Structure formats: structure tokens, C-alpha cells
């Protein structure tokens, strides 16, 4: 009997542009025992995507030379020079960027100069040009006829994995990859419709019976047993996996979801549960601080930053503020010379299009209509703000 996923694939007959090409190149790399580097964004979409590709390649006998997640606060978003300097000893290699890269023009050129062959698997909106990667897979790129544009990178990675396996993915591995696909899709706040709805339904149906130790640990640990329903449990899991705890450049979510035993996973989970209480308190404190500021100077958009704020929390803070005040919300961490920010907008307001109208000010920007980010020199912050207000109100 065909599953919902099988039926969905028949419905979406037109493949994502370059997906088959990427699968064939990875198959070739596996066959020839080429070095492969997986480079992913450190959020749950990126982490889940990396795990699916890593386990796909390993299952088929391929070699993973390195897995790398950039630290956004220290290195910026996506492919960056610090990371490439660290990885250059691995060249020549197939460099696969997951959930990032579509806005990294100079960095992609540098990667190629260092001897990397670059494949970009991303789902963020494409700006005016493309990086000169060998292969780009992004449903938003020009010429892509795939009808559903709301996939998370993990959804694309799942489809890529199916092609790499040539239809020989085992039912148990397929089920497990769907669990990760559901997790990454929900965490990235992608629309729960069309193909995503099917991914989520299929993936979450086996969550509580997962053979993945990192997921099983949650359902065998308090307070998850006391949550009222599966949706609440999933929200709690995502919240815990978003807690910052980096070890050997690997985020906690990657370490937990690739744990080799439930005992190992439970040990890390206990640590994250303790940190999650502190995280919640810090988020509430930052939200309160922003609310005090904006109460004194109401404006059409919310544009606030501080050098003392925790960069890893500003996305959660921006989401709360935006939902509460229903205004475009720009929250940023001030560094010595630059600021790194996150953007959340109410439904119907495209954050990327808004920033594009003021693109002379940020160093880089991009993302999704309702959730995006930017990096900017501090000297341009006020100009950027004034431009945003002007473009938003006119």
C-alpha cells in the first residue's frame, strides 16, 4: 500500500532543479572514495540536513572527511573565511553546504580557489545573483519549476537522500529520516501545508517509538512524560535542542541526535535541561528590556540592539516581540565594529524584500519572508533603520 510520501512524490512529478545532478555527483564521490565535507548551518534545519546526508553517505560506504557548523557570532552566517581556513587542509574535496551558501558569493569563490568543488543545498530566497558553485539546489532559484516553494533544507535533503539511495533506502532508515525531516521543518517554522504537512504527519507518527537514541532519550526523561500531547512534546524537544552548548565545534543538537546510546543521550539531555531554564530567564529579561525601550519611543518598526545581549537568543526574542506587537522586528547583537541581527515580520510582510530596498547598508542579508537575518557595520545602523522605516511606511 503506498504511503503518503509515495503519493506526494507522484503529485510533485517535476523534480527540484539540479537535485538529480547533485545526487549523481554525490554517488560518484561515494563510489570513488572522494573526500566529502558537510558544512551546515547550526540551526535544527541545518543539523537535521547534515545528519541525513552524513548517514546516507556512510550507509553507502562513502567517506566524510569533516563535518562543520559555523559559529554565527564569531564567523557570520554561512560559508566564511574562518571556516575555509580551518578546512583548507582537506582540499581537494567535495564541499556540500546545507541550509546556507546561497548568499555567499566571495566565500564560494574562495572555496573553489582552495580546491573545493562546491554544492549548495539551500532553501533561502535567492537575491539578485548566484554564487558560482558547481551545483546549486534551491527551489527559489530561477528556472526551478517545482511547484511547492515552502520546503525546509531538510525536506530537500530527504529527497536528495532518496535519489542517492536509488530507491533502495530501507523502511526503517526512511522512517528515521522522516523523523528528522519533520523535526527540522517544524523548527524552521516552514508552512505546514502541501508536502511539508505530509512530512510532518509521517515523521511525527513514529517519534515516540524512534530507534534514534537521541530522540528516545527525550521520551524516557522527565518532564516529557508529563506533557499533555505529542505537539507539546515536540515543541519542548525543539526548545531544548536550541540550547547553545558547543563542544569540538559541534552544537548540542548534532551531538544529541547522533548519540550512539540512550545513556549517552540522556547525560547530554540532563545538561541541556539545566541550561534551558537559564535560557528562558535570559530571553524573558531581554524581551522586557526591549519592551521598556519601545514604550518610550513607539515607531512603525522595532529596531533594537545591544552589545550585552546573547546572540544565540535574539531569534527567540525577535519572535516573541513580533508576535506581541505585530510589527517588523529587527533585533541585533552589537560587536566591536559590526552587528549581527535577526528579523521577524508579521504575516504578509516580506522581510527580505524590505531589506532589499535598503541593501546599500547591510554587508549581507537574506532568509525567508517572515524570518531572516543581516550583518551590518555599526556606523550604518541608524541609516539602515531610517531607510527601513521610510520604505515600510511609504
Secondary-structure class: alpha/beta
> How many strand segments?
10
Identify the CATH architecture of the largest domain.
Answer: Alpha-Beta Complex
CATH topology of the largest domain: inorganic pyrophosphatase (n-terminal core)
Return Rg in Å.
21 Å
CA-based shape: globular
Largest sheet: 5 strands, parallel
- Helix content, binned percent: 40-55%
Which spans have pLDDT < 50 for at least 5 consecutive residues? none
Count of spatially separate domains: 3
The strand line-up of the biggest sheet is 2-1-3-4-5
Strand content: 5-15%
List SSEs in N-to-C order: HHEHEHHEHEEHHHHHHHEHEEHEEH
N-end to C-end Cα span: 55 Å
Q: What's the pLDDT, averaged over the residues?
A: 93
Q: Count every helix, treating DSSP H or I runs of 4 or more residues as helices.
A: 16
Just give the CATH class of the largest domain: Alpha Beta
Written overview of the protein:
With 394 residues, this protein is α/β, with parallel strands linked by helices. It has 3 domains: 202 residues, Alpha-Beta Complex (inorganic pyrophosphatase (n-terminal core)); 72 residues, no CATH class; 97 residues, Roll (Diaminopimelate Epimerase, Chain A, domain 1). It contains 16 helices and 10 strands. The strands form 2 sheets. A 5-stranded parallel β-sheet has the order 2-1-3-4-5, with helices on both faces. Strand 9 and strand 10 form a beta hairpin. Helix 2 packs across helix 7 and helix 7 packs antiparallel against helix 8. The longest helix is centred in the last third of the chain and has 35 residues. The radius of gyration is 21 Å and the shape is globular. The protein starts with a helix and ends with a helix. The model has no long low-confidence stretch (mean pLDDT 93).
